[in-house]
Design goal:
Chain lengths: ~700, ~325
């Protein structure tokens, strides 16, 4: 709150005025931006938020003049100082890029050229400066140090693939800040990163804004990031600006029904734990069709008949504008917006029945499971004298899942979650330990013997469109598991319809192909495939990664309903903690292949015992600008490489509570209650007799 | 890196062995007395007896192979049936002509094809793009020996611009060069269009990558973006292709040497085959294979040097 005031200025650095833009496609003209206007005030951080496909990135790229070849600006101006960037000639625009206006990209893996070292990439950016190569290198080193790359003098010669994800994004930020630009554009700068990295990036970018007095425009669909980082917010929907305002106004006093719905859908803002999440039903309208009235009308809970035909007025409000009939004119509604306690979105209240705790014997029992990956060939290991040429991707993991229970496996990327899931499903060989399913030992079972069990255990893959074969129709895709497992005598068409109904996919979609599906629909196909053989356990790898909050709820609600109906057990692999809080019965936190804490989800969230759990729980940026964390709250560093597993406690390199006693040996798992374990010598919550120890750090 | 190099060299050695084994068994599988095969039908009984003893032809086949391998590894590839000169010496005299031809052929194709491919990629649909497109399709369909014959007929016999036959006077560099032009033109021509298309396809793919957009977003000049960034990545698959392409180029060179009566290794092999001069054939094939293996190895090393991702995975 404090730092906000120091950046209060009214000087406009960039002004977007009535910008309209179309993409020429074989489906027709996509009216991707329509009449976009908003100012970017100097020295402030402006966030553009909205569902995917709302045109956020297109706005950014049009500022830089780097739109795709099929884009055509049909109206408007983008004024920077006294120049309109849309009519600037190519040379003048290029002079601006990288020097005055710079960019941080979404995915640092693909946006940095793999074959040039950072030193070269960064000195290339400085090509307009009359500096010696040595000075350019020194400038690059300084900036890498500023963004927190350790040992920058030597790391400047590294190539992107030699950096971890978080370091790569730091380097990406260093590249964009190298010239000290006036305006920094950031397109989903943390979407590819873990929460802990995200918190670090937010702190870093805010710090850079203060040091360099750079104005930042950040695009994100992550409300937490927007609340924590931005001063001003622009809400976009389907190519239009529906609301703008100062961040507190947007988050506490939203005027537009879409803004309001978006906020209410965010699981991180829903205080009471509920299995069913609110959703914004429907999809973004087809932008190739003629558009009339309010763009949000087809999904708005408050829509009135006139909304479909009559364009809503643009209403000035304290710190911005909003575009809705409810706010002004003959259709104005004095009771809108209702107080925050009143829900304005679709809530599916046919609540899935909560399951009785400890319902029977475990369906899945994993004991001391180990998985190893070779790091080098036998020959190389012999020559180098490496005794153990492999790493422990999964180390002594034990867990239980009871029938009808949801266990969430949480941890940063690289913590071994997916490997553990694959090993349970016998898609990856175990190096030791046991996996029992319904009482039968299945670990490392030969595929021929395991095949009948595949009906009982299904996998839902991450990245649905990537894992769906593009040449198969939805019908073929969802009946494929039936064919593989010999569905003689079954009527496949009837099965396809049954499955489509189960996942609430309209039957008309059965003849479509994956590229014709939206993200949420593709996820439904993934769920249908997993369900095809009536499994008892589903391993879901990041079931909602990359989905907008408004769609995420639909998938999770569907999964909850199916669980209540069929008594399914879920192993959900995710790093999305706000979601976990609502859907998981139990939660297991993984770090470097080990489970560092597990227990009932509510207890673990309320009272983390392991410092890593606390770091994760607190690492999620809160979608509330009044609950910003100090920049120091983020835990430092990154998950070390498995090749450099610390000798003692795996977390010791990053743990704020680490002390000498943590380093000689790995802490054993200890029970707090019969249902709750952790692996920390100095836990934050513990049985009474250990309390004294923890309170004297 | 060193382990990788050792592995690759080991692999190359195995391939050379395999070729030696193949050549060896060819000599023994062809019906008839290998001594007569090796020495020719006009050989005297004494010569045959001497050869049989020297090559240990009366001993078990395996022993023979060991002897054969031993002498081959010491650089002894036998003697010319007619002149009794060492095969190695004969190849040594001729290899320069072949290397000059192959390298010039590929060299001009690369120097022209790669820039054309870049131009075509930067401006899809432009005349450069269309011409290289048509040209490459046309050239893939025409074998290089036909190009050689046409070139010979047109430029030397019809227009008399360039000499038709031989490799030029020894010591006269200009003359040698003028003799090189037509055959090198003929064997490289098909590659120009092919390389241009390869580079174009690879460039188009790379130009769509996010890191190219980054480079443009940082305001780098279009020239730098294309040559310093896009081509730097797009050239990698082309290098592999060129390395492998040398195999085809060697066989084109054989035809070109025959047609232009160029005294290289290819012509030597051809003549030796018609004379049933087996040691020469053997030596020639071995040298050609060795050269091919070397080129592929070099192209892989070049990639490892240019692509840090490959380098660190070694
Ligand atoms: N190159 C393109 N060709 C055609 N349509 C495009 C292109 N780029 C974006 N679009 C369309 O424009 C709209 C806005 O896209 P985008 O700016 O990427 O949204 P966001 O960043 O908010 O997800 C979408 O409907 C998208 O499909
Ligand atoms: S104008 Fe109507 S449809 Fe549009 S947001 Fe307002 S109430 Fe909803
Ligand atoms: S054992 Fe020590 S280093 Fe490890 S988590 Fe506990 S306090 Fe931190
Ligand atoms: Mg986007």
């Amino acid at each position: 709150m404090k730092d906000m005031d120091t950046h209060m200025t009214d000087e406009t650095l960039l002004n977007i005025d009535a910008l309209s833009l179309e993409f020429r496609t074989n489906r027709g003209q996509v009216k991707a931006l329509r009449d976009i206007s908003f100012p970017v005030k100097k020295g402030r951080i402006l966030g553009i938020v909205g569902e995917s496909g709302s045109g956020k990135s297109t706005v950014l790229w049009s500022i830089l003049g780097l739109l795709a070849g099929n884009a055509k600006v049909t109206a408007g101006r983008v004024d920077y100082g006294d120049r309109d960037l849309l009519t600037l000639d190519a040379e003048a625009l290029r002079a601006l890029r990288g020097e005055e206006v710079s960019v941080v990209f979404q995915d640092p893996m693909t946006s940095q050229i793999p074959v040039l070292p950072y030193a070269r990439q960064m000195s290339d950016i400085l090509y307009r400066r009359a500096m010696s190569e040595a000075d350019k290198r020194a400038a690059a080193v300084d900036m890498l140090r500023r963004v927190g790359i350790p040992d920058p003098e030597s790391r400047v010669d590294a190539y992107p693939h030699q950096f971890s994800g978080g370091m790569r994004q730091r380097a990406g930020i260093a590249m964009s800040m190298l010239t000290g630009p006036n305006l920094l554009l950031a397109d989903e700068p943390t979407t590819a990163l873990d929460v802990t990295m995200e918190a670090q990036m937010i702190g870093l970018m805010r710090g850079l804004r203060d040091d360099f007095d750079t104005t930042i425009v950040v695009v994100s669909h992550n409300l937490g990031l927007i609340a924590e980082m931005c001063d001003d917010v622009v809400v976009m929907y389907a190519g239009e600006v529906v609301e703008t305002g100062e961040v507190h106004d947007i988050f506490h006093n939203a005027r537009h029904p879409y803004t309001r719905a978006l906020l209410e859908c965010d699981p991180a803002r829903i205080a009471d734990v509920s299995r069913k999440l609110p959703v914004i039903p429907g999809d973004i309208p087809d932008l190739t069709k003629p558009l009339a009235g309010c763009i949000f009308a087809s999904r708005c809970q408050k829509a009135m008949p006139a909304c479909a035909t009559k364009a809503p007025p643009l209403v000035e409000r304290g710190t911005g504008v909003a575009r809705c009939h409810l706010l002004e004119g003959p259709l104005a509604d004095a009771s809108w917006p209702p107080p925050a306690s009143v829900s304005t979105v679709a809530r599916d209240d046919g609540a899935a029945a909560p399951l009785p705790a400890n319902a029977g014997e475990p369906l899945l029992e994993v004991r001391d499971l180990n998985v190893q990956f070779r790091t080098m060939g036998a020959l190389k290991a012999r020559i180098r004298g490496v005794a153990r040429p492999f790493v422990d991707a999964v180390l002594d993991v034990s867990l239980d899942i009871r029938p009808g229970e949801t266990l969430a496996l949480v941890g940063e990327s690289g913590s071994g979650k997916t490997t553990l899931g694959r090993t349970i499903l016998n898609l990856q060989a175990a190096a030791g330990g046991s996996v029992r399913f319904d009482g039968t030992e299945i670990g490392n079972m030969a595929e021929r013997r395991f095949k009948p069990l595949r009906r009982d255990m299904a996998m839902m893959f991450q990245d649905p469109t990537g894992s769906l074969s593009p040449r198969k129709s939805v019908r073929a895709l969802i009946t494929e598991p039936l064919l593989i497992h010999g569905a003689e005598g079954r009527d496949l068409d009837a099965e396809a319809e049954r499955l489509a109904d189960m996942v609430r996919l309209p039957r008309g979609f059965l003849s479509r192909y994956p590229h014709e599906l939206s993200g949420g629909q593709a996820r439904r196909v993934g769920v249908a495939r997993a369900l095809a053989l009536n499994p008892r356990l589903i391993v879901a790898d990041e079931p909602t990664a990359g989905l907008d909050v408004s769609v995420q709820g639909e998938i999770l609600n569907l999964m909850a309903d199916l669980q209540a109906e069929h008594g399914l057990s879920y192993l959900i692999i995710t790093h999305n903690l706000p979601v976990v809080r609502h859907i998981a019965d139990r939660i297991a936190i993984m770090y470097l292949g080990r489970i560092v804490e597990d227990g009932p989800a509510a207890e673990v969230f309320a009272n983390p015992a392991h410092p890593y759990t606390r770091a994760l729980v607190e690492g999620v940026p809160q979608p509330d600008p009044d609950r910003r964390r100090p920049p120091s709250a983020a835990i430092e560093g990154e998950v070390p490489s498995l090749l450099r597993r610390p000798k003692g406690c795996d977390f010791a390199t990053r743990c704020p509570l680490a002390r000498d006693a943590c380093r000689p040996a790995k802490p054993e798992h200890r029970h707090i209650t019969p249902d709750r374990r952790h692996a920390c010598l100095f836990p934050l919550t513990d049985t009474q007799d250990n309390k004294n120890k923890t309170e004297t750090p | 890196m060193i382990i990788y190099l050792m592995k690759r060299l080991g692999l190359a050695a195995i391939v050379v062995m395999a070729v030696l084994l193949l050549l060896f068994s060819m000599l023994h599988m062809i019906p008839g007395n290998p001594a007569i095969l090796a020495l020719g039908t006009r050989a005297t009984p004494e010569a045959i007896a001497e050869y049989t003893a020297r090559m240990h032809l009366d001993e078990p086949v395996l022993t023979q192979f060991v002897y054969f391998l031993g002498s081959a590894l010491q650089g002894d590839l036998g003697q010319d049936v007619f002149s009794n000169r060492a095969v190695v010496d004969i190849i040594g005299e001729r290899i320069g002509f072949s290397l000059a031809l192959i390298c010039t052929g590929m060299g001009w194709a690369v120097l022209l094809g790669v820039p054309l491919g870049c131009l075509a990629a930067v401006r899809p649909g432009s005349w450069v793009d269309r011409v290289t497109g048509v040209f490459s399709v046309g050239m893939i369909a025409v074998p290089s020996f036909l190009v050689s014959i046409w070139a010979l007929l047109l430029f030397s016999l019809e227009l008399r611009w360039l000499p038709a036959i031989g490799a030029g006077e020894p010591g006269d560099f200009a003359d040698q060069l003028s003799h090189l032009v037509l055959p090198a033109f003929a064997i490289g021509l098909g590659w120009v269009g092919y390389l241009a298309r390869m580079v174009r396809a690879s460039m188009l793919e790379v130009m769509g990558e996010p890191y190219i957009r980054s480079a443009r977003a940082f305001g780098l000049t279009p020239r730098r973006v294309v040559l310093g960034y896009a081509l730097r990545v797009a050239i990698l698959p082309t290098i592999t292709l060129i390395g492998m392409g040398f195999g085809g180029l060697i066989s084109s060179a054989v035809f070109a040497e025959i047609i232009f009566a160029r005294p290289g290794v290819g012509k030597m092999i051809f003549d030796a085959v018609s004379d049933r001069n087996f040691p020469i054939v053997q030596g020639g094939v071995l040298v050609a294979t060795g050269f091919y293996i070397l080129v592929v190895l070099m192209s892989d090393l070049l990639i490892a040097w240019l692509d840090p991702r490959v380098r660190s995975s070694l």
